[in-house]
Structures are given as structure tokens and as C-alpha cells.
Amino acid sequence: MMVVSEAVPFAKTGGLADVSSALSVALATLGHDVSLVLPRYREAGGAGEPAGRMTVTVGQVPYEVGLYAASLGRDVRVTLLDCPALYDREGLYGADGRDHPDNPTRFGLLVRAALDLAAATEGPPSIVHAHDWQAALGPVMLSAGLPGLERLRGSASVQTIHNLAYQGVFPLGCLGALGLAEAPGVACTLTHKAGVSFLKGGIAYSDAVTTVSPGYAREILGAELGRGLDASLRDRGSDLSGILNGIDVDVWDPATDPYLPAPFSAGDLEGKRAAKRAVLECYGLPTDEAALTRPLVGMVSRMVPQKGLDLLAEISDDLAGLDATFVVLGTGMAEYQALWQRLAERHPAGVGVHVGFDEARAHLIEGGADLFLMPSRFEPCGLNQLYSLRYGTVPVVRATGGLADTVRAFDAETEQGTGFVFTEYSAAALMAALRTALAVFGDRDAWRRIQAAGMAEDHSWDVSAREYVKVYRRAVASVRNGADGTAAQGGAGSTRSE
Ligand code: ADP
Ligand code: GLC
After folding, report:
1. How far is the CA of 461 from the centre of ligand 1 (A)?
2. Spatial separation of the C-alpha atoms in residues 90 and 281, rounded to whole Å
3. Ligand 2: does its nearest atom lie under 6 Å from the Cβ of 108?
């Protein structure tokens, strides 16, 4: 059972939604019985068929929850939790730049409802897979031996960290409202930054911890990217692993993508030119022959510090001086949005900006751009560079986390590689990489080889889904061993085996 705060096509703010959905379908394709539970937010737009009601008690407070059934692929059963008081509002996690103050309750309910559903099924799930801080109370509640969850004693839990920058830190008092204040060890284990961290709980109490690339799995063991949880992660030793995200190769396929004006493939890139024209048109940029020939640099990103926007801010005027056109799509912090909007106003023929969340435009940029920019400060995995590789859109990335694991740096000597990579987090290093990329763009043969190398790679979920299955098997074995009293490992102070 996947417990997650977003999943395509029901709700999405970033890559988590793509991953939870595509991983579930890939696991089902391998023959596993997969269900997924998420809130029915306002933006889910009335998704699902009514499938009953249940009372879910969080702490002492009963919530009436409507259950709505849907599916993903052919076989993944989805339950959307309808609780208008908590979910029928603007924004998944917050609005107007502020987090919803009742997030502990909103995601406490998600977890408790999912576990109640799991406990009520005839064969309880062998794995409860919690994604990010929003679901991280799953392993905690399973371990705490809360009343009503006795049937889940044999279920193992896996915690996946999609982004350690979001830790779900709340005042200590929230544990009382969640019915966890009295659970032995919980308050102490979750204590973090003058409050409690849900994610710290998921890391400590799960039977296995994963993150979304091997590179990031190493990086978060250090102080810089560990963000205060590195010691907790080091404590898990070999229970922590990095599994690279895949992509949904049906949704992200230039040969069938309905958002593109014409299909294209590695063998026939003609349609990519049509996509380039369409992107320029949709941004109101010139579409004459010179504009179609000039390199088009795309960016689709949450506008937050993680994505390297301060580097771009530093060199914004130099960017506009390059012989390239820029198209940007994103939402996020007001200062970054304003930065790009100012740049577009100053350079109306060279920079196009759209502030908003727009699936169609994201596909069009992947299809039509020549280069894709991801100068991230850190990047647990990143999906857009993978989409770019598949669409013959050459990524320019910083060597961090999943970007370093997935983009092979172009080597001018051998002319091998799939993209352009810089290491130092500096505006100068980014600018140098961009200049190199733009110079190579002028060499049509070299460019075609780079595109072809990227397009030939297989980033489908199949391989990574099998890696998750291995983690699941190990987690199940550790719970069984624990129950036998042979090798009680698993998370901190697990009471399930006692
Ligand atoms: P993150 O999850 O950190 O935002 P990823 O690269 O893993 O980064 O995934 C981002 C996902 O969200 C991609 O599918 C990307 O296309 C999508 N996305 C981000 N911003 C927007 C936007 N403004 N409009 C449409 N899609 C977006
Ligand atoms: C997070 C990360 C991103 C990753 C995504 C899906 O949002 O920032 O790098 O690709 O989760 O795992």
C-alpha cells in the first residue's frame, strides 16, 4: 500500500506525483497487488466513484471520511479520502506562500485512514510504503502499536525520501492531537529543531529507508545535504539505499505525446522543429527562420532555491546577451517569479516566461527546446532531465544527486556524452557550461550524436521497480525475523515484534 500526498493524475506539485503513480503501475505490471491512498483535494476535481464512508479517529477526534475509488493503469486500486474540512481548499500544502497551519492533522489523517483501511482488508498489505514527510507517520504509527492497528503487526514499512529539505517539522504539542504523545519513545525520537519532525520518525521507525538516487543517498549522510537528519540516516546503515527514479515512458514519449504538434523520434527529428515553432508561438516569441535556428533553452521548475535560481539571478543580464532564446515555466517564490518576468519584459524577443502550473506547456517545452537547464543546488533525482534525454533536448545540469547519476558529461575529445555538466555551484561555472553547450550546438553532427545518445537510453521504471521489490523483500524478512525473535532489526524501538 502506497501512502502518498500526491499522485498523477489526481494531484501534483512536483516529481513526487509522477513517481508515486508510475512506480505503482510498474509494480502492478510486475505482478504485485498495489493500492494507493491519497487525499481528495479540491484540485482532484471530483475524482473517483463513491465507495463508502468511514470514521477515522486521529488522537481523540473522529473524522467522517468519504472513500472514493479510482484506478491507475489497469490494476492499481486508488482510494481518495474525502474530508472537505481538511482537503477542500486552495493549495495542497499551503496557499499564498504560507503552509496550512493544520498540516499535522491533514497528513495525520491521511496516514491513519490508510492504516485503518489496510487493517480492514482481508489480507493486510505486506508493505506500507510511505512517501516523504506527509506519510512518514505511517512507520511511526505502525511501530507504536496503536489500538486498532493490531492486524498490521506483520506489515513492514518502507520510507522513501524524495526531498530531505522538507521534513514536516511541527510543535511538539501536535503529537498529543495525533494520539502519539504517550507512545513510548516517539516524542524523543521525533524531536528535531525545537519541535518534532515527521520525516525523522519515518526514517527511524521504518524497516527500510530509500531515496531516489544513489548519489543523493550518499550525499544526505553528510552535514550539508543531511540537513540535521544525517545522523539519523547514518544510524540506519545499510537499511538506507538509493534507487533511481524511472519515468513513465507512455506519458513522456515524443512519438505519441498528444501535447506535441507532430510526433518525432530519434530516427526522425522533423517533428521536433514543429514543436520548437509551437513553443515560440505559445510564448509570443518570434518564429522567423533566424529564431527557429537559434538555440532554444527551456526550463520547467518549481521556483525555489533548490533549483539554482539564485545562480540564474546573478547572471540574468548575461543570459539575455547569449545567442539563445529562453523559455521558462514555473511557479514558486514571488522574488524568482518577478526576476524572470522582469527579464522577459526587458528582452521580449529573447526570453519568454509563464508563471503557473501547466502540464501541456511542460510537455511542449520538453519537445521543442534544444537544451534544458537544471542548475540545481541539490537534486534528489530530478525527472525533467530524464524527460529531456528522451525528447532529444540536451540537458545542462549541475553535478549533484540524481542529475550527476543520470546525465553523462559531454567529452569534447571523444564526443561521447548525453549533456553538459558543471560541478561548482557558481554562476561562472553555470555560464561556462552554457557557453560550451551553445558552441557545440553549432556543430550539427556532434549535436545529433549527443541527442541520439540520450534518446537511446532506457529510463523506464522496470529496472527500478525491481529494485524496490528487493527492498520490500528485505523489509518483510526483517519483520518476520523480528517476530520470530531471531534478528529484531527494523526501526528505532519497534514494538511490533514484542
Ligand atoms: P521536483 O519534484 O523537485 O519539482 P522533478 O524534476 O522531480 O522536480 O519533477 C518536477 C515535475 O513537475 C516534472 O514532471 C515537471 O514537468 C513538473 N513541473 C514542475 N513545475 C511545473 C509547472 N510549472 N508546470 C507543469 N509541470 C511542472
Ligand atoms: C522531489 C525531488 C526531485 C525528485 C522528486 C521525485 O521533489 O526534488 O529531485 O525527482 O522528488 O522523487
Report:
1. 18
2. 31
3. no
CA nearest ligand 1 atom 16, residue: 362
- The dihedral through the CA atoms of 102, 104, 106, 109 has a sign that is negative
Atom of ligand 1 at shortest range from CA of 383: 6
Homologous superfamily of 2-246+463-483: Glycogen Phosphorylase B; (3.40.50.2000)
Rounded CA-CA distance 416/410 in Å is 6
The terminus-to-terminus CA distance of the chain in angstroms comes to 24
Q: What is the pLDDT of residues 163-188, one digit of tens each?
A: 999 999 999 999 999 999 999 999 99
Q: Is 64 strand, coil or helix?
A: strand
Report the relative pairing of strands 156-161 and 208-211 from DSSP bridges. Answer: parallel
| Residue with CA closest to ligand 1 atom 2 | 15
Strand order from edge to edge, sheet including 325-332: 351-355, 325-332, 296-303, 371-374, 394-398, 420-422
Ligand nearest to the CA of 378: 2
Sheet containing 169-170: order of strands: 169-170, 195-197, 191-192
Q: pTM higher than 0.90 for the full model?
A: yes
Q: List all residues 6 or more positions away from 491 whose beta carbon is below 8 Å from its beta carbon.
A: 139, 143, 157, 204, 205, 206, 207
pLDDT tens digits for range 333-367: 999 999 999 999 999 999 999 999 999 999 999 99
CATH number for 270-455 (one of 3.10.100.10, 2.10.109.10, 3.40.50.2000, 2.40.290.10): it is: 3.40.50.2000
Q: Which ligand is nearest to the CA of 388?
A: 1
Question: What is the CA(363)–ligand 2 centre distance, in A?
Answer: 18
